Amino acid sequence: MADVIELGERRVGKDQPIYFVAEIGINHNGDINLAKRMINVAVAAGCDAVKFQKRTPELTVPEAERDKIRDTPWGTMSYIDYRKHVEFDRDAYEEIHLHCQGHQIHWAASCWDPVAVEFLENFEPPFYKVASACLTDDTLLNCMRETGRPIVLSTGMSTAQQIRHAVSLLDHDQLVICHSTSTYPTTPEELNLRMIETLQSEYSVPIGYSGHEEGLQTTFAAVALGASLIERHVTLNRHMWGSDQGASVEPTGLFRLVRDIRIIERALGDGIKQVYDSETLNMKRLRLKS
Predict the structure, then answer these.
(1) How far is CA 166 from CA 136, 210, 211, 230, 234, in A?
(2) pLDDT digits (tens, 9 = 90+) for 165-194
(3) What is the Cα–Cα distance from 83 to 232, expressed in whole angstroms?
(4) pLDDT at 241
(5) Would you identify the CATH topology of the domain 4-286?
(6) CA 239, CA 227: separation in Å to the nearest integer?
(7) Residue 148: left if φ>0, alpha if ψ -120 to 50, beta else—which one?
(8) Cis peptide before 185 (omega within 30 of 0)
């Protein structure tokens, strides 16, 4: 087990700077130019990585859902056709890869099936993300582990027993476990941020936080509680069409979030009491005895 791992060239974990992941997910709505604009915002805000979602619709859309009709900005279509519409192909990911390389920011994806993992391997991502919905998919977890790459595991809608089983399948020297609640958006009463400390007490790996709440305050609290990696959904406008937009952070909020997390990092210190040089003048001025 390791309390510090490497994602790309970045060390993540104990006494390391927070690794901030801007989750673009499918908020790009299948538009590569919109995705690039979101990447640019993440770069300007100082994020460490952007993350997408990669599915093979024929494998991940349940049979009962496939033919359900959905009204979309691109017309009325079946649910599986909608899922195909928001999936980027090889050419689009080549553009994303080059764009991120040019802006010196990591990119990765939540892979929902083994075919998606095989696809992403072409780009040698710095890590794979296990979405909360996939935590109980042993085949997928084993597929990701076999790549030898670090894995970030989200734990929303999962029991403690299910989390333990998933963790038992993965390489603990290459693992970050993220506390999460899979409601979009999540109310403060269901965030249960103290689970960060619970996970820290049980697992000797970096513990992160993947948030789906509105606002920024509770993400700051997650950092104060010891989260080593932070992931928040991002969007250009929360009123855009899409299921994740309402639980996402707009550019101004993202700038504030990353900026203030860096301040909190510096303020937390090392927990060892000391008298700072800046205090000595007041100590001499205000104390009768030193």
Answers:
(1) 7, 17, 20, 21, 27
(2) 999 999 999 999 999 999 999 999 999 999
(3) 22
(4) 84
(5) TIM Barrel (3.20.20)
(6) 29
(7) left
(8) yes
| CA R_g for the chain | 20
- Amino acid 138 reads D
Is 275 in a helix, a strand, or coil? coil
Amino acid at 168: S
Distance CA 81, CA 30 (A): 12
pLDDT the model gives residue 290: 61
pTM score: 0.94
- Mean pLDDT within 26-50: 96
Q: Characterize the bridge pairing of strands 10-13 and 4-7.
A: antiparallel
Interatomic CA distance for residues 160 and 142, integer angstroms: 20
Closest C-alpha among 143, 107, 142 to residue 127: 107
Residue owning tokens 């494998």:
59
* Beta strands 69-72; 75-78: pairing state: antiparallel
Contact between residue 107 and residue 125 where contact means Cβ atoms under 8 Å apart: yes
The amino acid occupying position 196 is: I
Enter the tokens of residue 107.
Answer: 């990119």
Strands 4-7 and 207-211: unpaired
Question: For the chain, give me the number of helices (H) and strands (E)?
Answer: 12, 12
Return the H-helix or E-strand segment holding 100.
Answer: helix 90-102
